[in-house]
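Materials and Methods. Structural model of Lipoprotein. The 84-residue sequence of Lipoprotein from Leptospira soteropolitanensis was retrieved and submitted for structure prediction as follows.
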Amino acid sequence: MIRFVFLLFLAFLSCAQLSREDQFREECDKTRNRSYVFMLPILERHSTTGNVELNTAVWIGNTELAYKKCISESEKNRYNLRSN
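The predicted structure was written out as tokens:
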């Protein structure tokens, strides 16, 4: 009986992850983190206009706007099921 309840619990946990919202949020976070890890050092070293602070501020603003759009898209996909 305990094994059966445990198996039901595991099945419930696996079925609870059918939403694509979590999948989208993970991708949003990965993209945001990569943007900060890889692009900011490049912008600090190589600036076409010589104004490093402005380029960095613009990049951060664009990154945060893209992140907010990504999060809103993930919320729209809350009730869509995963395709994999």
